[in-house]
Amino acid sequence: MTSSGTGTVNVTVTTTQGTSSQSVPFTYVTTPTLTGLSPGQGPAAGGTTVTLTGSNFTGATTVLFGGVAASFTVDSGTQITAVTPAHAAGATAVTVTTADRGISWIGGVIRFGDGVIGGPMDTPRNPPRVVHHTTESPAGGKYLEAVASYLIRVAAEPHLIYCPVTDRVGQFGPLHHSARALRNDGSRRTNREGLVHVQIEVLGRAAMPWTDGWDPREKPGWQRILAALRFLGCAGPLAGGPSCAVRRGSGTPFTFCVAVGGRTLRPLPRTGQRPR
To answer: CA distances (Å), 110 to each of 123, 145, 163, 172, 266, in order?
Structure first.
């Protein structure tokens, strides 16, 4: 397959008998590339300010030093300032993970509101999640717009809203931020748990299952949702088959050192390190 840049495109199959009448989406994304860091070493106790350079850092959700999360600030799309966590002495990999905008915003859907419905996740190192509810409303017609307008008015926007009758999808905010359909639960903000916590409102009523007589293979709008969820690694009881996790990110080595007697001992460099 040849890349067409970034964003979501439809995939069809053509044989000598013709071209498939159905299509499914495929999303091209820009993954983060980490090209350097400075300084390249620091004490095992952590606390070293490190400047990471590279590309496609916008929307970074996690910076890991040897699998341990670091606090960080995204200075620009090409620079991140991170503070090293405590870690055992030795060379380790530094990775940057982003929620690419090709996935954070699904292509070909209706945008509702101003795009600001939440903020960064509280526990981005936890597994990604997805939940869906019925709106207890009719579907079809202009109900997608009507229900979306109501959710904005009462500040209860999910990430996505879907109409199984018309196969139309609406999006209120980026998937890698929180949404408001799940209200905060005291000090435990359930709507901000996980790498992502995608919330989907489906037009319909719980007493009348919307999947009855509904084939997800014939719904390109629903397939766009599934494609995004699969990329983000979400798993859940969604119509259309199981999701699969996808690893992404890039790595470069950083050396943690042991301080002895007021001086720092550098371990011997290791070669052939693979990003992880």
So the answer is: 29, 9, 12, 9, 54
Close Cβ partners of 234 (under 8 Å, ≥ 6 residues apart):
128, 129, 130, 196, 198, 243
In this predicted model, what pLDDT tens digit does every residue of 44-94 receive, in sequence order?
999 999 999 988 787 677 888 888 888 888 888 889 999 999 998 888 888
Whole-angstrom Cα distance, residue 132 to residue 121?
Answer: 18
> pTM of this prediction?
0.56
Q: Which fold has domain 33-100+248-265?
A: Immunoglobulin-like (2.60.40)
For 134, the token pair is 């019925």
Kindly report, residue by residue over 209-247, the tens digit of the pLDDT: 888 888 888 888 998 888 888 777 776 556 554 333 333
Q: Considering the domain 107-232 in this protein, what is its CATH number?
A: 3.40.80.10
* Secondary-structure percent of the chain, ordered helix, strand, coil, rounded to 5: 10, 35, 50
Q: Give Cα 163 to chain centroid, integer Å.
A: 23
Unique residue bearing structure tokens 């070669």: 271
Specify the DSSP class assigned to residue 122. S
